[in-house]
Design goal:
heterodimer; A: alpha+beta; Uridine Diphospho-n-acetylenolpyruvylglucosamine Reductase, domain 3; Enolase-like, domain 1; 5-stranded antiparallel sheet; 4-stranded antiparallel sheet; 12 helices; globular; B: alpha+beta; Ubiquitin-like (UB roll); binds flavin-adenine dinucleotide; binds FE2/S2 (inorganic) cluster
Chain lengths: ~290, ~170
């Protein structure tokens, strides 16, 4: 049995925003329900009202717009998987969608729900961080864009105000020479929560040095994170096996994982280093050093 | 929190039900409308016993709030076939003994049907992936995978027979 709540069914985004403003603080959006319904049942979340976003056409669709790909917040993980634009312009996000939960959950789970829930293990986050994505937060006061790195502030905490809806996620169409990688490590092959996940992006300069690096990690810190020091270290350096190994060590050093029922902190750090090294080596097409 | 009447078409039959907003689609189907083939395993999205096809997509009905399903078309396991005319997936499950206690079976059948609609020639890996949201505590999955393979063969054979018949007409 679920606790009692009012259920509001807006017919437009404007109406949804009006409800959220009016019930400031005690209303929460619901989309696919795959996080919030179990949370209501367990008592972890107890809003007095739910505002149903699952029917809003304004939150649907994936399109190209002035050099960006824009995905509506209500796009489901299954829709990401079926999108040629995501496949071609957001390879790590496509890979993450393939490994996301299971087909039943993917048919309901939305992109905005995944990000707004702000679990350290939210699987869409590392790929979107590697793609330099930003989110569009809409309220009656207007629209603001926040880069995804700044969106997450703590375990299940974000900069989103309670009157705001995450209406869209956008990222620049990557340059053709950008190379990506993504890995998710779970306790089993399908339908698993990430123990560690990572997405990388490397853009080589004409001389073969690295002109831009992104290293994003999931489940190794209170928030999905970017390994900024490792990224800075790579930038401007030739992508040799030694450089990559050092960057992977630095990235693991930037992580602050916890121990939980899935893995210990030490294991997560060790594995994060190995995963990042392999992904970078693959993206840079450098031969892999001997496993240590 | 007030109840309201919601409209659902389940296995081709139109229903109206007076429903409070804090009920799941699973609860409405099972407890209010009597579709007891939709099973309640965990009520948190983990087991797939409650799988139904909602507006064309296989979903966990325990995670859908009933009011979100207003006006929806729902298909459950019993909507796929009858004892006299079972769906090829149902027939294959029965023929191969792909069930023990049977609790997971309606959900498995619905997920398998959704797979074969999209991909008539799935590999074993694709079958296992497609059923990854449906847990079985009894069988070990081997016979279930075989049953889906058998159903796929039957459906493809039936379809090519139909096509041949059309050509000779
Ligand atoms: C069995 C199972 C397996 C899972 N596996 C994975 C997995 O592999 N990887 C993974 O990352 N997650 C997984 N999840 C978690 C969940 O499915 C995802 O986080 C999903 O993307 C949540 O989206 P939703 O639409 O269902 O969100 P909901 O449950 O509807 O909402 C989640 C939160 O986001 C808020 N919200 C929703 N939409 C908006 C919006 N547009 N604007 C502002 N706030 C909004 C809600 O108020 C709520 O706080 C799993 C869940 C289950 C039950
Ligand atoms: S009862 Fe819905 S997934 Fe278990
Ligand atoms: S047959 Fe018993 S749970 Fe699958």
């Amino acid at each position: 049995m679920l606790p009692e709540f009012d259920f509001l069914t807006p017919n437009s985004l404007a109406e949804a925003l009006a409800w959220l403003a009016q019930r400031a603080g005690d209303a929460a959006p619901v989309a696919g329900g795959t996080n919030i319904v179990p949370d209501l049942r367990s008592g972890r979340h107890a809003p007095k009202a739910l505002v149903d976003l699952s029917r809003l056409a304004e939150l649907k669709g994936i399109r190209r717009e002035d050099g960006y790909v824009v995905a509506g917040g209500g796009v489901t993980i299954a829709e990401l998987l079926g999108s040629p634009l995501v496949r071609s312009s957001a390879r790590p996000l496509f890979e993450a969608a393939r490994l996301f939960a299971n087909p039943l959950i993917r048919n309901r789970a939305t992109l905005a729900g995944n990000l707004a829930d702000a679990s350290p293990a939210a699987d869409s986050a590392p790929p979107l961080l590697a793609l330099d994505a930003e989110v569009e937060l809409v309220s009656q006061a207007g629209t603001r864009r926040v880069s995804l790195v700044e969106f997450f502030t703590g375990v299940r905490r974000t900069v989103r105000r309670t009157d705001e809806i995450l209406a869209a996620v956008r990222w620049p169409v990557p340059e053709p020479e950008a190379a990506f990688g993504y890995t998710k490590l779970g306790l089993r092959r399908a339908d698993a929560i990430s123990v560690v996940s990572a997405a990388v992006c490397l853009v080589p300069a004409p001389d073969g040095a690295c002109s831009r690096a992104r290293i994003a990690l999931g489940s190794v810190a209170p928030v999905p994170m970017r390994a900024r020091a490792a990224e800075a270290f790579l930038t401007g350096r030739p992508l040799s096996a030694e450089t990559i190994a050092e960057a992977a060590r630095m990235a693991a050093g930037e992580a602050s994982p916890i121990s939980d029922l899935r893995a210990t902190s030490g294991y997560r750090k060790r594995v994060a280093e190995v995963i990042v090294r392999r992904l970078l080596a693959e993206a840079a097409r450098t031969p892999q050093p001997q496993e240590s | 929190m007030e109840a309201k009447v919601i409209h659902l078409t389940v296995n081709g039959r139109a229903h109206r039900a007076l429903v409070e907003p804090n009920l799941s689609l699973l609860h409405v189907l099972r407890e209010l409308l009597g579709y007891t083939d939709v099973k309640n395993g965990c009520e948190k999205g983990d087991c797939g016993a409650c799988t139904v096809i909602l507006n064309g997509k296989a979903v966990n009905s325990c995670l859908v709030l009933a009011w979100q399903a207003e006006g929806a078309v729902v298909v459950t396991d019993t909507g796929l076939g009858t004892l006299e005319h079972p769906h090829p997936v149902q027939e294959a499950f029965a023929d191969l003994g792909a069930a023990q206690c049977g609790y997971c079976t309606p959900g498995m059948v619905v997920s398998a049907k959704a797979l074969l609609d999209e991909n008539p020639h799935p590999s074993e890996a694709e079958i296992r992936e497609a059923l990854s949201g449906n847990l079985c505590r009894c069988t070990g999955y081997g016979q279930i995978v075989h049953a889906v393979q058998l159903a796929a063969e039957k459906m493809v054979t039936a379809e090519s027979a139909e096509n041949a018949e059309e050509k000779t007409r």
